[in-house]
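forwarding from the other thread:

> can someone predict this with glutathione?

sure thing
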Amino acid sequence: MYTLYYMPGAASFVVHWLLIDIGASYRLVCVDGERGEHKSPEYLRLNPNGMVPLLLVDGRPVYEAAALGLLLAERHPEHALAPVLGDPRREMYLQWMLHLANTVQPAFRNWFYPTEPAGEGAQEVVQSMARSRLEAAFQRLNDHLLVQGPYICGTDTPTVVDFHAAMLARWSRHLPTSALHWPAIASLVERMTARRSFAAVCQAEDLSGWP
Ligand SMILES: N[C@@H](CCC(=O)N[C@@H](CS)C(=O)NCC(=O)O)C(=O)O
């Protein structure tokens, strides 16, 4: 049994989407960011970073969106959301998941929270760097998909990396150039958002209008 602490459209989105996609049994707790619920002592005891997502896995708190995707793939192997151990495509799987989490997601964080790295005065510089990092990352992902596609890890069905990438592509709608500008990413997004689970998660989080 899982309990997901989430904010609509946030990094918890991919975890929620995966839970629906695999038909897991879960409970949802909507965290009110405006009221700072994610900074309350009770919440910080579960996730000391004060962020979403947070997933209770059989009562144990686990955080970090990418780690949760990897964990769900591992706990539900019947859904083939990851290449199995020993499959050479696992190299791409680990590489791209960590790339999305370590390189692409922090650039989004700079875009959305531009005062975090250096205060109010540096917002424009921070956002402009974030934008160029993101555009370079979209270009690289697009080039990779042109060779390995339609899915990122060279598989015939999506892995958790594709879910994660589609969530990040959704976030890019706020950028001057959205990830959908890159055709191979746009076609990945088209496949991923055609899944019934995508409509279901958007409905559950009351999100609309994308792609
Ligand atoms: N590395 C974390 C980042 C999570 C993150 O940045 N979450 C944002 C929402 S997308 C959040 O909780 N923001 C509230 C805050 O930082 O105060 C992960 O991937 O889980």
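The beta strands are 2-6, 26-30, 54-57, 60-63. thats all i got for now
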